[in-house]
Amino acid sequence: MTINEIQDEIIEEFSIFDNRNDSYNYIIELGKNLPPYPEQFRTDDKLIKGCQSKVWVHPYIQEGKVLFYGDSDSTLVKGLVSLVVRVLSNQKAEDIVKADLYFIDKIGLRQMLSMNRSNGFASLVKQVKLYAFAYQTQEV
User: Fold this and answer.
1) Domain limits of the chain?
2) Residues 6+ apart with CB under 8 A from 35
3) Which residue among the candidates 51, 55, 80, 88 is catalytic per the annotation?
4) Class assignment of domain 3-139?
5) What are the pLDDT digits (tens) for 36-73?
6) Does the model's pTM come out above 0.85?
7) What is the spatial distance between Cα 30 and Cα 104, in angstroms, rounded to a whole number?
8) 20-47 burial code (b ≥16 CB/10 A, e <16)
């Protein structure tokens, strides 16, 4: 699936929720389905700077596509990580770098998050794109 197809799928999933609490609960559930984060990558260099909670992201390449492991010590943030991983993992580096993550506004995520969480989420997205950019420059 393309990045936009995955975003559209997420928007559709969130369209059934009438209130913020239902959306929060769904995000937490998504985090529970995140694949286990390999312990050997739970290192300071994989921590996302600017996050209120501890957030780890590890990129790797498989068959020319960038994939991500992600985790957090917060159940809500783990769900946010799972959304980013779902949208951007298993994509070409160049597609990740240029991706417009419109699902964030479409599902009302900016309004749901506190200022600190919103800044941390932006740091997460930025770091994931930086990882992809690094892989993209290696390919050239």
Assistant:
1) 3-139
2) 69
3) 51
4) alpha beta
5) 999 999 999 999 988 778 999 999 999 999 999 999 99
6) yes
7) 15
8) eeebbebbbebbeebeebeeebeeeebe
Secondary structure element (H or E) that encloses residue 58, with its range: strand 55-62
- Asked if residue 108 lies in contact with residue 15, where contact means CB atoms within 8 angstroms, the answer is no
Tokens of 122: 């932006």
75-88 helix and 115-139 helix, angle to the nearest 10 degrees: 30
Q: Pseudo-torsion of CA 6, 68, 101, 4, nearest 10°? A: -30
5 class by beta-carbon count within 10 Å (0-12 exposed, 13-18 middle, 19+ buried): exposed
Can you read off the two tokens belonging to residue 23? 């959306």
Please indicate whether residue 51 is annotated as part of the active site.
yes
